[in-house]
What we know:
seven-stranded mixed β-sheet; single chain; Aspartate Aminotransferase, domain 1; about 15% strand; 17 helices; Aspartate Aminotransferase, domain 2; OAc-hSer/O-AcSer_sulfhydrylase; 14 strands; five-stranded mixed β-sheet; pyridoxal phosphate; PyrdxlP-dep_Trfase_major
Amino acid sequence: MATETTTHRFATQAVHAGAAPDPATGARVQPIYFTNGFVFESTEQAADIFAMRRTGFSYSRGSNPTVAALERRVAALEGAKAAVAVSSGQSAVLLVLMTLMKSGDAYVASSRLFGGSLGLMRRLDGRYDLKPQFAKGLTPADFEAAITPDTKAIICESIVNPCATVMDLEGIAEVARRHNLPLVVDNTLASPALIRPIEHGADIVVHSTSKFLGGAGQTIGGMICDAGRFDWKAAGSRYNLINEPWPDYDGLVITERFPEISFAVACRLFGLRDLGPGLSPMNAFLTLTGIETLPLRMERHCANAKAVAAYLKDHPAVEWVSYPALPGQPGEALAARYVPQGPGSIFTFALKGGEPAAVKFIMSLELISHLVNIGEIKSLAIHPATTTHRQLDDADKRAACVGPEAVRLSVGLENVEDLIADIAQALAQVG
Ligand SMILES: *Cc1c(COP(=O)(O)O)cnc(C)c1O
């Protein structure tokens, strides 16, 4: 489960980390192990694996060799001690919250999160009494002001969907450290090619691998990465799942048996063995293959996004563009500090003609697809106010740059002149 240490650089790890030629056959590509069960050598071995006294495969809900290769690779790219793959990014956020907290607990959350995360948090509050305490703004001081004695964690995104706002991770990590709280960062929009939140003080990193990591828009998946740094033991019974004996595992205390990867082990035992949203080996294979080109793709995603954003900014039909790699944008300094390569390829822009113009623009696109995913090889557009961000009220929509006049783009890897030509013809029809 732990990652091998390696001196290789990022692009090399993206291709090699966590997988090796198959010792049984010599297959160079990671085999897909489509098997639910694994034959035990002895009853002792079976008992030891069940009780977590020794590592090994037993049943693919909890772990599988193809999925484990993906976990090792993402852990290596994030600089984490271990990672746990799950069936979706949504499950990754859910399992992190459920593993850290029990009903009655609270956590400070960024008020600018992926819409699915906000919906999940609302339902967990209403039905399971896990309380989100939303920070009023995006600064570290806003996060600190939201902390109460019930707070068990802080959660934010590295780059915020859909305005490409870059968060001050080091400032927020500093707040988390001061209050002895683990910092959870959803790194989906940056991917480890642009930001490695653990280097900036995060304790737990989550991903929707459905986006840039998989890259091709083929498969849904999620990942939970454990930096192995948070002192769960010092926090005592505040994190009882991680730090108190599990009677059905012969009194296993995770922090004692697995001090370096406690959170990952707790997620595997509670999140996968008990709750069950494991990743299919097929999806793990596709994601693993996608990651091999991640550094190359992110370079092009950022370059294309910057060129498209610059074109839009100068267009007479466009009111504003939210892409902090452009000069004079709010958040420019944070973007320059955390993402010198560029703040990814998902951003919004607004049309002077308001909602009718935004709708007309989207419906006039020919090359760029009208669809809800992000972070794919293909370029995509959507109207967030009526789809992904429809649950926000009007004031929150404007604050999150998803008012009715806004269009979200996820800029892909096509030739950028072709992308700009498609945008130009669609803008011409808006009038
Ligand atoms: C898409 C997304 C998720 C949810 O991931 P799924 O794989 O779609 O379940 C979570 N966080 C962010 C930032 C996302 O963009």
